[in-house]
Design brief:
This is Drug/metabolite transporter (DMT)-like permease. With 305 residues, this protein is mainly alpha-helical. It has one domain. It has 13 helices and no strands. It is globular and about 50 Å long. 44% of the residues are buried. The N terminus is likely disordered.
């Protein structure tokens, strides 16, 4: 058998990084669509109704896929069920806090605060996943965090207390993303997606019952709101499907800095759709974020000797 050439071996990490970028592009677009759709449905449905419907949409899509699978049981049988339970319980709390932030803060502010998540992922991944920290990865994380601070300007009049809710959500997302990377080693993407929706659906329904809202969605919606509802159900699935596959092809420390690009993207969407015009600090902060991402992309995409 002929050994693979050194050039072919060097090209493999480069090809895997390109896959990470493509999967993360799908993640960015999906999460941005979810944010806009939550804004559209807020005031008609409760946050927990919206999140429960997202779980229902994910299960419907998974059921359709499983019908076509040669061995559906094998696809959804979990390894490390306790890790699944911990991951999804923490993610349930984090996404509820994040969704609340979307209703009380500008979109760019929510996404900017959320991008302290890669810092938490980097810390958790080094200690719990054994990933290594390289100079380009550190640079991307530091510049991303600095860019977020420039956008938020903590200690100034522009700071809002509600931002702390989203900051707590970011810690939860850090745990969720680190455990997602861990689970991809022994679980299929379908398994992770299936148990996320199965565990979180009853949690969302129970939380909705606690706040005293009847779980009956259709009468609350007018025809114009069915489109954002469909977007949440579909993009809620595609966002996590793309994110899980990105973690499958790359280290958590590589994947999460790319997610910083959501800040300028959602800032543009907020400007165009809601007249949330970004000020100079947001633009400068976004430029710093993008610079960090580009440095990391350049370093990770270069063939290694």
């Amino acid at each position: 058998m002929t050994a693979p050439s050194s050039s072919a071996a060097a090209a493999r990490p480069q090809g895997r990084f390109i896959l990470v970028v493509l999967w993360m592009a799908g993640t960015l677009l999906s999460f941005s669509a979810i944010a806009v759709s939550i804004r559209a449905l807020h005031g008609t449905l409760t946050l927990f109704e919206i999140l429960a419907l997202r779980n229902v949409g994910g299960l419907i899509i998974l059921a359709a896929i499983m019908v076509l699978a040669p061995d559906p049981g094998q696809r959804i049988r979990p390894a490390q069920p306790l890790i699944h339970a911990v991951r999804n319980s923490i993610h349930f709390v984090a996404q509820a806090l994040w969704a609340y932030g979307l209703t009380v803060l500008p979109l760019a502010t929510v996404f900017a605060i959320e991008f302290t998540t890669p810092t938490w992922v980097a810390i958790f991944a080094v200690f719990f996943l054994g990933e290594r920290m390289t100079l380009p990865r550190v640079t991307a994380l530091v510049l991303g965090f600095v860019g977020v601070l420039v956008i938020l300007r903590p200690g100034f009049d522009s700071f809002r207390p509600e931002a702390l809710v989203v900051a707590l959500a970011a810690v939860g997302f850090g745990v969720q993303q680190t455990t997602t990377k861990f689970l991809t080693g022994t679980n299929s993407t379908w398994t992770i997606m299936f148990w996320m929706n199965v565990i979180q659906l009853p949690l969302n329904l129970a939380a909705n019952a606690v706040i005293g809202e009847p779980v009956w969605f259709a009468p609350k919606l007018d025809p114009a709101q069915w489109l954002p509802l469909a977007a949440i159900m579909v993009c809620g699935f595609t966002a996590h499907y793309c994110l899980t596959n990105a973690f499958r092809h790359g280290d958590a420390i590589v994947v999460t800095p790319i997610d910083f690009l959501r800040v300028p993207l959602i800032g543009l969407i907020g400007w165009l759709m809601y007249s949330e015009r970004p000020d100079i600090a947001v633009l400068i902060g976004a430029a710093i974020v993008v610079a960090g991402v580009l440095i990391n992309i350049y370093a990770e995409s270069r063939p290694r000797p």
